[in-house]
Amino acid sequence: MEMETTPPPQLNPSPSPLARLNLFVATSRVGKRFKLAERNTTFTTELRAGTATFLTMAYILAVNASILSDSGGTCSVSDCVPLCSDPTLAPSNCSGSPSLTLIQPDSACNVSYQSALGAVFIEGLIFLLISAIGLRAKLAKLVPKPVRISSSAGIGLFLAFIGLQKDQGIGLIGYSSSTLVTLGACPTSSRASLAPVVTSANGTVSLLPGGTVSGDILCLHHRMQSPTFWLGVVGFVIIAYCLVKNIKGAMIYGIVFVTAVSWFRHSNVTIFPHTPAGDSSYKYFKKVIDVHGQYFAFMSDASAIVVGSLLGTSPVTAFIESSTGIREGGRTGLTALTVAGYFLLAFFFTPLLASIPAWAVGPPLILVGVLMMRSVVEIKWDDMREAIPAFVTLILMPLTYSIAYGLIGGIGTYIVLHLWDWGVGALREFGIVKGVKSNSEVVNTQVSRDETTKPFDV
């Protein structure tokens, strides 16, 4: 008779240091404040998401340096939003709005910077007022469903379009005088600026290569031969492979790899070229490296515009690059708070952060655009009253380079296509008409006929 042997009890392995840290934060006042357990997230996940968001936003430090000098508005506002509410959005000073042009004292609009900042201040007060009375949240709920759904995909296309350009991306898209955009990705030596030339005979203006008005936006030859473009493609492949394998921190790995390679100065992909500006940036960069050792969200957003205008900055708004942090698992305001901490450190490490090249930020923006396109399956494409406004919203955002214009176009189209239905409904309500059918009734009747009609048997 064989004796039955019971297997020895297996001891549970001790939790890792990161697991203990996440458990400690989740049970602390910070974890309860941001509801980490309720939202199925952890402290380290929020830190990773905040890091990814900041790395894709860091270009603003160099782009708006002349406007934001010594204002300090960015870090304080990013800090205010997550503390007052609990979103994952990170606000900063926008560079694409028309107000950025108005702030330039030598602008062709002949508007002084005092007047421009005053306009920004009044704008912020209006936003603050409608946020305080709750009107801003109600207005957001009035956005039609097809426009609301397609806006996510439209923003994704907008992000991908930014990531494909030269100034803030890998440079695959270039300028064309005939079609506006074309295939680019040519090296710096093959690019040229455009200069406006006025014809005295008829007063027409032509854009010809030469001058320094537009920057190096015209690709003359050697397309698809830019070393920085191919380095960006490598970063794209790294991020895409990590996403396929569901590896956490995919965005960070791609950005860090491309940035680290771009730090080597004696290469064709360096962010520090052998120019006076490149020499100065590299000297400062080396010096830093060598050193040892919803309601309240709307209120915070509106207050940021007011405070930013008083500090002399362009409008402060939530950046669409926040979607990269959401993709990395960000669920609470700790993500935005992490971004705020990074911006605060940027006071002391600006050369390091500004050295993140555009071709390192482009790949994650493109892949975020891919991920945001999934919402188009929720649009009822067989209903033209919803499909047309959704498509207008989706296509206008990247082509007009503005989310606002896309929303305006989509909402306007939605209203126009529904005016007949609303008018018929109002007339029926007052008993003025009885036999007129609305568009929705006509469509439903046609669909029912198609379903009941059967082909003849042969």
From TrEMBL:
<feature type="transmembrane region" description="Helical">
    <location>
        <begin position="228"/>
        <end position="244"/>
    </location>
</feature>
<feature type="transmembrane region" description="Helical">
    <location>
        <begin position="332"/>
        <end position="350"/>
    </location>
</feature>
<feature type="transmembrane region" description="Helical">
    <location>
        <begin position="389"/>
        <end position="417"/>
    </location>
</feature>
<dbReference type="GO" id="GO:0015853">
    <property type="term" value="P:adenine transport"/>
</dbReference>
<feature type="transmembrane region" description="Helical">
    <location>
        <begin position="251"/>
        <end position="275"/>
    </location>
</feature>
<dbReference type="InterPro" id="IPR045018">
    <property type="entry name" value="Azg-like"/>
</dbReference>
<protein>
    <recommendedName>
        <fullName>Xanthine/uracil/vitamin C permease</fullName>
    </recommendedName>
</protein>
<keyword id="KW-0813">Transport</keyword>
<dbReference type="GO" id="GO:0005345">
    <property type="term" value="F:purine nucleobase transmembrane transporter activity"/>
</dbReference>
<feature type="transmembrane region" description="Helical">
    <location>
        <begin position="116"/>
        <end position="135"/>
    </location>
</feature>
<dbReference type="InterPro" id="IPR006043">
    <property type="entry name" value="NCS2"/>
</dbReference>
<keyword id="KW-0812">Transmembrane</keyword>
<dbReference type="GO" id="GO:0005886">
    <property type="term" value="C:plasma membrane"/>
</dbReference>
<feature type="transmembrane region" description="Helical">
    <location>
        <begin position="356"/>
        <end position="377"/>
    </location>
</feature>
<feature type="transmembrane region" description="Helical">
    <location>
        <begin position="147"/>
        <end position="164"/>
    </location>
</feature>
<keyword id="KW-0472">Membrane</keyword>
<comment type="similarity">
    <text>Belongs to the nucleobase:cation symporter-2 (NCS2) (TC 2.A.40) family. Azg-like subfamily.</text>
</comment>
<keyword id="KW-1133">Transmembrane helix</keyword>
<dbReference type="GO" id="GO:0012505">
    <property type="term" value="C:endomembrane system"/>
</dbReference>
<dbReference type="GO" id="GO:0015854">
    <property type="term" value="P:guanine transport"/>
</dbReference>
<dbReference type="Pfam" id="PF00860">
    <property type="entry name" value="Xan_ur_permease"/>
</dbReference>
<feature type="transmembrane region" description="Helical">
    <location>
        <begin position="295"/>
        <end position="320"/>
    </location>
</feature>
